[in-house]
């Protein structure tokens, strides 16, 4: 769709000498000239211009003279009346140059983009990245070592193994059976990570070793001293038994 840039101040200054009918005639004529092969120029007979304006031929001739007198266009009378507006012609030429310049810029940009893509595709591509290796799951074997002979105790211990270990630590067999039944019944041989617990350390701690049999010796191998001898608590095995008992008179 064709268009013209309409400047209000220029319109007001150029048509100040025209009456209202003359201003309307000039607007109609500008629209007609803008649709011609050569924008800003029109050739037509007086009758054709009169039909364009909706007036008589005599009135059309008077309006053309008014337009020429106001210097808004150049009018040449003859068999064909030629009307030319240099400003419209210049505006049309400027717009045509603008369109051509945009077309050339678009072509140049398209060629530059095509060259850049061709150059990028011509470069040898690097080797594709190697896929990350899947994490290798290692199965760790839990090795249980005693504190004395470093013997490997693999897997869940049996009752005989618990008894044998307790015998080597002077822990009574009843405690070994109680320990085994408790951990076996509650399924406590393994921790939350599925690893075997170090049961041989746990059985050596309280409460599982409170009544260990050491034949009169404590855990360090020295003779156990009976601190109740000669007191009101004489005869009690534990030094803490009957704590607070009042000695008889």
Rounded to the nearest angstrom, the radius of gyration is 58 Å
Uncertain runs are: 138-153, 213-223
Strand content: under 5%
Shape: rod-shaped
SS-based class: mainly alpha
**Major sheet strand order:** 1-3-2
Number of continuous helical runs: 8
Distance between the termini: 131 Å
Description:
- This protein is mainly alpha-helical.
- Among the domains are: 8-90, Winged helix-like DNA-binding domain superfamily/Winged helix DNA-binding domain (Arc Repressor Mutant, subunit A, Orthogonal Bundle); 140-223, no CATH class.
- It is built from eight helices and three strands.
- It has helices at residues 8-14, 20-34, 46-53, 57-69, 86-122, 159-168, 173-185, 199-202, and strands at 41-44, 74-76, 81-84.
- It has a three-stranded antiparallel β-sheet.
- The longest helix has 37 residues, at 86-122.
- The chain is rod-shaped.
- Residues 138-153 and 213-223 have low confidence and may be disordered.
């Amino acid at each position: 769709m064709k268009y013209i840039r309409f400047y209000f101040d220029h319109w007001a200054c150029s048509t100040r000498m025209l009456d209202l009918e003359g201003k309307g005639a000039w607007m109609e004529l500008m629209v007609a000239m803008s649709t011609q092969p050569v924008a800003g120029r029109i050739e037509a007979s007086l009758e054709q211009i009169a039909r364009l304006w909706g007036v008589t031929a005599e009135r059309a001739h008077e309006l053309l003279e008014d337009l020429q007198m106001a210097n808004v266009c150049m009018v040449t009378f003859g068999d064909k009346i030629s009307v030319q507006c240099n400003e419209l012609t210049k505006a049309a030429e400027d717009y045509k140059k603008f369109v051509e310049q945009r077309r050339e810029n678009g072509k140049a940009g398209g060629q530059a983009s095509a060259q850049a893509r061709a150059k990028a595709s011509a470069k040898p591509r690097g080797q594709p990245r190697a896929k990350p290796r899947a994490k290798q799951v290692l199965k760790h074997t839990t090795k249980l070592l005693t504190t004395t002979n470093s013997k490997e105790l693999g897997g869940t211990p049996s009752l005989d193994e618990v008894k044998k270990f307790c015998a080597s630590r002077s822990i009574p067999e009843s405690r070994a059976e109680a320990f085994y039944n408790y951990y076996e019944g509650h399924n406590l041989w393994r921790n939350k990570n599925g690893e075997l617990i170090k049961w041989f350390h746990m059985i050596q701690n309280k409460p599982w070793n409170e009544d260990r049999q050491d034949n009169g010796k404590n855990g360090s191998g020295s003779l156990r001293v009976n601190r109740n001898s000669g007191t009101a608590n004489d005869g009690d095995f534990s030094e803490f038994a009957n704590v607070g008992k009042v000695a008889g008179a």
